[in-house]
Specification:
With 97 residues, the chain is of the alpha+beta class. The protein contains three helices and three strands, in the order H-E-E-E-H-H. The protein has a three-stranded antiparallel beta sheet with strand order 1-2-3, covered by helices on one side. Strand 2 and strand 3 form a beta hairpin. The longest helix has 21 residues. The model has no long low-confidence stretch (mean pLDDT 89).
Length: 97
């Protein structure tokens, strides 16, 4: 008999296919230190990732929130490159879905 999936497992099994960079989901841990968004450390075939679901209750326009995060991340990425640093290890890297 298969165990019943938890709501977190269902959420992640639906989300992960939207990120082909990840590969198949192997395991995950919910990060409980935040208060607003759902955040998970996921272990996939192609390595570990942080996956965060922006709360639609706290943020009525999540697409605008993501656009803002994308702009700030792009600015940090470009600044790190100009300084000769590695943006893959020094700032957030977004995986569009």
């Amino acid at each position: 008999m298969n165990p019943v999936s938890t709501p977190d497992e269902i959420l992640l099994k639906e989300a992960i296919p939207h990120f082909p960079e990840c590969g198949a989901l192997k395991s995950f841990v919910r990060i409980t230190q935040g208060h607003i968004n759902d955040t998970f450390r996921v272990e996939c075939e192609k390595g570990p990732f942080l996956l965060q679901r922006v709360s639609p209750v706290a943020f009525k326009e999540p697409l605008k929130v993501m656009k803002n995060i994308e702009g700030a991340t792009r600015f940090l990425h470009d600044s790190i490159v100009k300084e000769g640093g590695d943006p893959k290890t020094r700032c957030l890297n977004l995986l569009p879905s």
